[in-house]
C-alpha cells in the first residue's frame, strides 16, 4: 500500500525538502518537492497527490493561503501543515480550515512516521468507502428495472429525465409492477443519491402511527413514547422520501402533508420546535388519484402539489415481450441467493409463462419463478414446476378444445403422468384419458 | 574496481577491535570487502549551537565528497548526536541509491537511557544501523518484515528487535540471491 501513496513536500528550505524527501523515499513513498506555494499549485494542476506536506511560513504565499487554494482546486489531498513551535496557533487555524493535521518542526521521527501512516490508512479507507458507495449505487440503479419493451424504455427515459430535477413525482401503476424500483432508480440517479432514500408504506400504518412515523415525536408525546424519535421527513434530509400507497392517507394527514411540502418544515408530535428538512418527495399509488379528487377522497391542492411529474409503470400484460428477460433475471437472482448454479427454463414452460395472465404483475411472476426453483429438479424449470391454477390459464385460450388440452396437461404434469391418478382426478376412465392424450398429441415435458 | 567495496570512515575515538568486528560482520552480510579508515576532518564545523547537535545533512555531503578511489560505498561513523532539520535526532542516514551514508552510536548507548553500559548491545545496534544505511545506498527501502534489518527503527528498542540480516526479499532486490 505504501508505494502507491504519493506525497508532495512544499517548503522553501532546501535542507527540509531534502531531508523529508530522503525520509519518505526510504519508506517507499512516491515523493515530489516544491520550493514554494506557487510552484506547488502549478504542479497540482496537472498531478494529484495523496498527501501534501506544506510549511506554514513561506515567502509569497503562506501554507494557509496555499491550503485554501488547494481546496478551491477541488483537490481532495490530505494536507498536513508543518510549523515552527512559535506558530502553533496558526496551525490550529489551518486545522479549523480543514487541514488533516499539523506537525511541529523538528519532528520526532516516530511522530512523523505515525502521522504519515495514519494519513495513508485514511486514504485507503476513503478509497474503500468510495468503492462500496459505487457498489451500493449500482445495486439501486436502473439496471434493476428489467425490460426492453417500448413501454419500459419509455419509463426509463422518464426516470432519467426527472432524476436530475427536484420536482415531486407520482408513480402510478398496478400492484406488483415495480413502482418502488422506479422510485429507487430516480433517487440513485439524482444528485441526492449519497443521502438516504427513506420509504414509508402509508397503507400499513394507522393515522396516528403515520403521523409519528413521518414527523417523529418527543419523549412523552403519547403513551409509549419513551424517547425522542426522528421522523421520516427528518431522516430524509438531503435525500428522498418515498411515500408508497399515498392514496390511503386520511384527509387530516393530507393537510399535514401539504403543509410540509409547501414549507419543508414540520414539528415533531408533542414538540414545539420547528424542524427544517431538505427532501424530495416521490409517491406511488395503484389508484386513480384524479378520480379520488373528483370523489372528494383526495385533496385537489395536494394532488397538484404532488403531481408535477407522473410516471406510469405499465402492467405486465402490456409488456409480454419482457417476460423472458424478467424470467432470466429472477432465475439468476434466486439461484444466486440459494447458492445454486443458474438453471435454464424449459421452452414449453417459458411459452406457458408468456401466454399467461398475471394479475399480480411482475411480483407474481417473481414468486412463480422462486417457487419453481425451490420445488424444481435443479436442472431446469419445467411446466410442472409452474403453479398453474385455473385463473392463470392463458388468456389467449378461446376454444374448448384448447382449454381441455391445457387442463389435461396440467393434471398429467401434476401427477407425474401417472395415468390412473390423473384419470381419477379428471373423473374419467383410463381409456378415455389415453384417447385424449393421443388426440391432443400430449407428451411429458421430461 | 568492478566489485562493490565498502569503506568505513571513523570520526572520533573508536576502539580498533570494535571497528574490526563491525567491518567483519558487514563484510559477511554483503559479501563485499570492508575497509577501515580514520578521518581527520574537524566536525566542530558541523555543530549547530541552537540544537546542540551535529548536522547530519552537511556531514553526509562531506562524506560524499571524501575522495576514496576504488570504494563504491562510504559510511561515516560518529560518536556525536546527529540531527537533520526536520527531525529531532537520527541514528543514521544515507543517500538512496547513492554512495554515502553515516551512522552515530551516540543515541545507541544504553547510558543515554539511564541503563548500564553494555558494549555487546552497543556493537549490535551500531552494526544494524550501518547495514541498514548501506541497504539504502543499494536502493533498498524500509521493509515491513519485523526481523529484517531494513525495517524502520525510530527507537533503540526497535533496533534491538530486528536482526542484523537482510530478509530474503531485500536480498533478492539487490541481487544477492
Helix content of chain A: 40-55%
Radius of gyration of chain B: 15 Å
The biggest sheet of chain B, with number of strands, parallel, antiparallel or mixed sense and barrel status, is:
5 strands, mixed
Oligomer status: heterodimer
Residue windows where pLDDT falls under 50 for at least 5 positions of chain B: none
CATH class annotation of chain B = Alpha Beta
Query: Largest chain-chain contact?
Result: A-B, 21 and 19 residues
Output the strand order for the largest sheet of chain A: 2-1-3-4-5
Report the portion of residues of chain B in β strands: 15-25%
CATH topology of the largest domain in chain A: Rossmann fold
Mean pLDDT of chain B: 91
- Give the percentage of residues in beta strands of chain A: 5-15%
CATH architecture of chain B: 3-Layer(aba) Sandwich
- Please identify which CATH superfamily of the largest domain in chain A we are dealing with: P-loop containing nucleotide triphosphate hydrolases
**N- to C-terminal separation of chain A?**
56 Å
**Silhouette of chain B:** globular
**How many helical stretches of chain B?**
5
- Provide the residue-averaged pLDDT of chain A: 84
Please tell me what the overall shape of chain A is. Answer: elongated
From the N-terminal CA to the C-terminal CA of chain B, the straight-line distance is 22 Å
List its salient traits.
heterodimer, A: 446 residues, alpha/beta, Rossmann fold, 3 domains, 5-stranded parallel sheet, 14 strands, B: 177 residues, Collagenase (Catalytic Domain)
Concise account of the structure shown:
The complex is a heterodimer of chains A (446) and B (177). In chain A, 47% of the residues lie in helices and 14% in strands.
Structural commentary:
The complex is a heterodimer of chains A (446) and B (177). Chain A is of the alpha/beta class. Chain A has 3 domains: 2-136, Rossmann fold; 142-312, P-loop containing nucleotide triphosphate hydrolases (Rossmann fold, 3-Layer(aba) Sandwich), CATH 3.40.50; 317-440, Helicase, Ruva Protein, domain 3. Chain A has helices at residues 14-26, 37-46, 63-72, 88-96, 109-139, 150-163, 179-188, 207-215, 232-235, 251-263, 289-295, 300-306, 323-337, 347-354, 361-375, 400-414, 419-426, 430-440; strands at residues 6-10, 30-34, 51-55, 78-84, 101-105, 169-172, 197-201, 216-217, 229-230, 240-244, 265-267, 274-276, 280-285, 309-312. In chain A, the strands form 4 sheets. Chain A has a 5-stranded parallel sheet, sandwiched between helices. In chain A, strands 7-10-13-6-14 form a 5-stranded parallel sheet. A two-stranded antiparallel ribbon of chain A has the order 8-9. With 177 residues, chain B is α/β, with parallel strands linked by helices. Chain B has a single domain (6-141), classed as Collagenase (Catalytic Domain), CATH 3.40.390. In chain B, 32% of the residues lie in helices and 20% in strands. Chain B is built from 5 helices and 9 strands, in the order βαβββαβββββααα. A 5-stranded mixed sheet of chain B has the order 2-1-5-9-8, with helices on both faces. In chain B, strands 3-4-6-7 form a 4-stranded mixed sheet. In chain B, strand 3 (47-48) and strand 4 (53-55) form a beta hairpin. In chain B, helix 1 packs across helix 3. The mean pLDDT of chain B is 91. The chains are: A alpha/beta (446), B alpha/beta (177). Chain A binds chain B through residues 13, 15-16, 18-20, 22-23, 25-28, 82, 105-110, 112-113, and chain B through 51, 57, 83-90, 93, 95-96, 136, 141-142, 152, 154-155.
Amino acid at each position: 500500500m505504501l508505494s502507491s501513496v504519493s506525497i508532495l513536500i512544499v517548503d522553501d528550505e532546501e535542507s527540509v525538502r531534502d531531508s523529508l524527501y530522503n525520509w519518505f523515499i526510504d519508506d517507499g513513498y512516491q515523493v515530489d518537492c516544491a520550493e514554494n506555494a506557487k510552484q506547488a499549485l502549478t504542479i497540482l494542476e496537472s498531478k494529484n497527490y495523496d498527501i501534501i506536506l506544506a510549511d506554514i511560513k513561506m515567502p509569497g504565499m503562506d501554507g494557509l493561503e496555499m491550503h485554501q487554494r488547494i481546496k478551491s482546486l477541488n483537490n481532495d489531498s490530505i494536507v498536513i501543515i508543518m510549523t515552527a513551535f512559535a506558530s502553533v496557533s496558526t496551525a490550529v487555524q489551518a486545522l479549523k480550515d480543514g487541514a488533516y493535521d499539523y506537525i511541529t518542526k523538528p519532528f520526532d521521527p516516530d511522530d512523523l512516521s505515525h502521522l504519515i501512516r495514519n494519513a495513508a490508512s485514511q486514504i485507503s479507507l476513503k478509497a474503500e468507502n468510495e468503492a462500496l458507495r459505487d457498489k451500493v449505487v449500482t445495486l439501486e440503479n436502473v439496471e434493476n428495472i428489467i425490460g426492453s419493451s417500448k413501454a419500459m424504455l419509455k419509463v426509463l427515459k422518464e426516470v432519467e429525465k426527472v432524476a436530475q430535477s427536484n420536482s415531486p413525482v407520482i408513480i402510478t401503476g398496478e400492484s406488483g409492477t415495480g413502482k418502488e424500483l422506479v422510485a429507487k432508480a430516480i433517487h440513485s440517479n439524482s444528485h441526492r443519491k449519497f443521502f438516504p432514500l427513506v420509504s414509508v408504506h402509508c397503507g400499513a400504518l394507522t393515522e396516528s402511527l403515520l403521523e409519528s412515523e413521518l414527523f417523529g415525536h418527543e419523549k412523552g408525546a403519547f403513551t409509549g413514547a419513551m424517547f425522542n424519535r426522528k421522523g421520516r421527513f427528518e431522516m430524509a434530509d438531503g435525500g428522498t422520501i418515498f411515500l408508497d400507497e399515498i392514496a390511503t392517507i386520511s384527509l387530516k394527514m393530507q393537510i399535514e402533508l401539504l403543509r410540509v411540502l409547501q414549507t419543508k418544515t414540520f414539528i415533531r408530535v408533542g414538540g414545539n420546535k420547528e424542524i427544517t428538512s431538505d427532501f424530495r418527495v416521490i409517491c406511488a399509488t395503484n389508484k386513480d388519484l384524479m378520480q379520488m379528487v373528483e370523489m372528494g377522497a383526495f385533496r385537489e391542492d395536494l394532488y397538484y402539489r404532488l403531481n408535477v411529474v407522473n410516471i406510469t409503470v405499465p402492467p405486465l400484460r402490456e409488456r409480454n415481450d419482457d417476460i423472458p428477460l424478467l424470467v432470466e433475471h429472477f432465475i439468476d437472482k434466486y439461484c444466486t441467493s440459494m447458492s445454486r448454479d443458474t438453471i435454464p427454463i424449459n421452452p414449453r414452460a417459458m411459452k406457458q409463462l408468456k401466454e399467461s395472465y398475471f394479475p399480480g404483475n411482475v411480483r407474481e411472476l417473481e414468486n412463480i419463478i422462486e417457487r419453481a426453483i425451490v420445488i424444481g429438479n435443479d436442472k431446469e424449470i419445467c411446466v410442472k414446476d409452474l403453479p398453474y391454477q385455473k385463473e392463470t390459464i392463458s388468456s389467449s385460450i378461446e376454444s374448448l378444445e384448447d382449454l381441455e388440452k391445457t387442463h389435461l396437461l396440467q393434471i398429467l404434469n401434476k401427477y407425474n403422468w401417472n395415468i390412473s391418478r390423473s384419470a381419477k382426478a379428471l373423473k374419467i376412465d383410463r381409456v378415455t384419458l389415453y384417447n385424449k392424450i393421443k388426440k391432443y398429441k400430449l407428451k411429458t415435458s421430461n | 574496481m568492478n566489485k562493490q567495496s565498502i569503506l568505513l570512515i571513523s570520526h572520533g575515538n573508536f576502539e580498533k577491535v570494535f571497528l574490526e568486528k563491525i567491518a567483519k560482520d558487514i563484510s559477511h552480510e554483503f559479501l563485499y570487502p570492508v575497509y577501515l579508515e580514520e578521518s581527520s576532518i574537524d566536525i566542530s564545523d558541523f555543530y549547530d549551537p541552537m540544537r546542540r547537535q551535529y548536522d547530519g545533512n552537511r556531514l553526509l555531503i562531506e562524506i560524499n565528497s571524501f575522495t576514496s578511489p576504488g570504494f563504491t560505498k562510504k559510511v561515516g561513523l560518529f560518536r556525536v548526536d546527529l540531527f537533520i532539520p526536520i527531525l529531532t535526532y537520527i541514528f543514521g542516514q544515507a543517500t538512496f541509491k547513492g554512495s554515502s551514508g553515516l551512522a552515530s552510536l551516540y543515541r545507541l548507548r544504553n547510558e543515554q537511557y539511564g541503563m548500564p553500559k553494555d558494549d555487546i548491545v552497543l556493537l549490535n545496534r551500531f552494526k544494524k544501523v550501518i547495514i541498514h544505511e548501506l541497504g539504502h545506498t543499494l536502493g533498498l527501502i524500509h521493509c515491513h518484515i519485523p526481523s529484517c534489518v531494513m525495517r524502520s527503527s525510530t527507537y533503540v528498542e526497535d533496533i534491538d528487535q530486528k536482526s542484523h540480516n537482510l530478509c530474503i526479499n531485500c536480498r533478492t532486490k539487490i541481487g544477492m540471491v
